[in-house]
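Thread title: Can someone regenerate the structure for this chain?

I was given the following input by a collaborator and told the matching structure tokens would be attached. They weren't. Posting the sequence so someone can regenerate them.
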Amino acid sequence: DEDDSDWFVIQQNEFNNAVLNYHLRASELVYLGGLDIGPMQSVFTKDDDHFSYLKEDVSISTVIADDPMGVLIQNFLEEKGITVSNPIKQNVETYLSLVLIDENGERHFIGSKNGSLRSYCLEDVCIDEDCKIVSFASMFISPLFDDEQMGKLFSLIKEKGILLCVDCSSIKNNEDAKDMSCLKYIDYFFCNTSEARVLCHSEDIHTCEEVLCQCGIKNVVIKMGEKGCLYKGKIYAPQRNIQCIDTTGAGDSFVAGFIHGLSQNEKIEDCIRIGNECGGRACEYVGGNEWTTHQ
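Best answer:
Regenerated them for you:
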């Protein structure tokens, strides 16, 4: 590219035992997290552009700052027709993640400890009156949303008769699923294998599923990368092989596809099939959203 200022260059360095030598466009380093709530026709997930691609009416409740990256995010969402509920927060910086991709297409994140999502709290949440499905993503991203605060929010969502989906992220304070009372409100819980093992303090993925179900979660879906996902003791493999280039956004795309299926009243097996296909397609391109631009 003639304009070098539009690129981040990552020299060869050791990072999580992976040798990196990649050029990434700056715009591909920005991904949204936090709580996403909206009407459904409003379904949402950590990366709402995926739902926009799936032709859902999408709204997001999150917090960003009045800074250049916040403006970039708002413009991006507006272009996709995604409604943002009261996003601006003062005295913070917009949360950013630097995404590093290793030679196997796996991604590693460097995030801002003091970014806007770290200050996301119950008072920032906005739920539209006609909301049918809420996706809370990502659990543990904000230290202000502890078990008690999530329990308050989740119980409110269920009182309104809304389907609650929760996508996990890495735990921050050695949380244990057995000690989390908020889990009993969840209709669909999504996590990957490493998140499940740490949260349930077990290396056996089937044991993790049992622990999460015993916590009161109605449906547990454990994302297993190229193997597909685990649901009710059965592994559902993808229906086709893919060439993995970049796994950024794969888990979010899986969740987007799965919840899209729920919004269309599909059977669980079909929700999984759609999720696996969306997650697989995300791996075939660099960047979390690129696959949505290809039919």
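The CA atoms of residues 97 and 128 lie 28 Å apart.
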